[in-house]
Amino acid sequence: QGTATKAQFELTITLVGSLYSNEYLTVLMMGIDKWAHSLSENQRGQLVIRYLGGDIRLFNDAAKQCIPNLHVEALGYVSTSDMARYCSQSLLNMYVRHAGTFHHKLLELLACARPIVVYPAETQESRQLTEDAGGELIEASTADAIAVQIARVQNEVVDLSSSARSQHPQKHYTWANQSQLLEQMLLE
Question: What are the angstrom distances between the C-alpha of 111 and each of 15, 84, 92, 122, 148?
Answer without folding.
Answer: 15, 8, 13, 18, 24
